[in-house]
From TrEMBL:
Leader peptide range in chain numbering: 1-24
Signal recorded as keyword: yes
UniProt KW keywords: Signal
UniProt cross-references to InterPro entries, sorted A to Z: 6-blade_b-propeller_TolB-like
Superkingdom, taxonomy of origin: Bacteria
Protein name according to UniProt: Arylsulfotransferase (ASST)
Lineage, uppermost ranks: Bacteria, Pseudomonadati, Planctomycetota, Planctomycetia, Planctomycetales
């Protein structure tokens, strides 16, 4: 009988967290969000309503999207980095040749001096580019392999003026100094592929691992000090944590993507906020992103419907912790 009560309490807690599956009406108040997805960028309000949406035919795979203090939105897509204003007018546009399999950009980061950090996967370079599109600093990256798409995922400049690069196929995080010299590395498990690496204020590094569906925090010695994985019962299935931001209070906002997940349409929770003691505060559901039963993206290759969420940001939160 005691075991039965525990099961009932657990199921009730999950029901309260997720809301009624019939109408999805019981939403926990969230935050304004900026989300990059397969074909564009969208902004949501505290009730998960889409209030702004940018989509153009030349945009594909938005791994990174940032709401700037000016109100403009900076994002990268497969063949460039673009900044648009709230009226969706382009104010800055960095382009690379549209050569599938040879060129690709996987990340961008606005820097405090107004420059933009760009990960050039095709040429295996890390670039700092100013507003006149002049490359002011360039680092030749250690080889990431033959497949342009699988070489790297994201790069981040740290408060220490070093650079964290996520190597996808090589399953490693490298930290380089301004001269391109390696100063730290973390080797992932064989079943891990890191999406990004975020340097925390305590000197540790947060690493979302997309193929093992887990997020780990490691110290400078490489010891895992915190982990979120499928063994943690969050009342929903953990999928690809492709976008993560650390809030000022230490909570994580996380994309729970069905990107490339062949059972993705069974996935209800698309994003969530979680505390360090693993309490889920709010969720973003499929129903929040759908209108008249439609989804934003149908994958070109598989023709499967997919929400294809990739990047997440709570505007106004520290940009260095994303």
């Amino acid at each position: 009988m005691k075991y039965f009560h525990v099961i009932c309490i657990t199921l009730l807690a999950c029901f309260v967290l997720q809301g009624s599956p019939a109408n999805g009406a019981d939403k926990s108040p969230g935050h304004p969000l900026l989300i990059g997805y397969g074909e564009g960028v969208m902004q949501l309000d505290e009730q998960n309503h889409i209030v702004w949406h940018y989509q153009q035919s030349d945009i594909e795979t938005v791994y990174d999207a940032w709401k700037l203090p000016s109100g403009n939105v900076l994002f990268c897509h497969r063949y460039g980095v673009r900044e648009v204003n709230p009226d969706k007018e382009t104010v800055w546009d960095y382009k690379i040749p549209r050569e599938p399999g040879k060129q690709e950009i996987n990340s961008c980061q606005p820097l405090p001096d107004g420059k933009v950090l760009i990960l050039d996967c095709g040429n295996q370079k890390l670039l700092e580019v100013d507003r006149d599109q002049k490359v002011t600093h360039s680092i030749d990256l250690p080889d990431g392999g033959k497949n342009v798409h699988n070489r790297y995922m994201q790069a981040r400049k740290t408060p220490q003026d070093t650079y964290l690069i996520s190597y996808r196929d090589n399953k490693v995080i490298l930290e380089l100094n301004a001269d391109g010299k390696e100063v730290w590395r973390f080797k992932l498990n064989d079943n891990d592929r890191a999406f990004t690496a975020i340097r925390l204020a305590n000197g540790r590094t947060l690493i979302p691992c997309i193929t093992s569906y887990r997020i780990i925090e490691v110290d400078p010695a490489g010891k895992i000090t915190w982990e979120l994985d499928k063994q943690d019962d969050l009342c929903f299935e953990l999928l690809y944590p492709v976008g993560v931001q650390v809030r000022k209070n230490g909570n994580l906002v996380v994309i729970n993507s069905d990107y490339h997940h062949r059972k993705g349409m069974n996935n209800d929770v698309q994003a969530y906020e979680i505390t360090r003691d693993k309490r889920v505060l709010w969720t973003l559901k499929k129903s929040d992103l759908e209108e008249d039963g439609k989804v934003p993206v149908v994958e070109r290759g598989t023709k499967m419907p997919s929400h294809h969420l990739l990047s997440i940001q709570v505007p106004g939160e520290p940009a260095g912790l994303k």
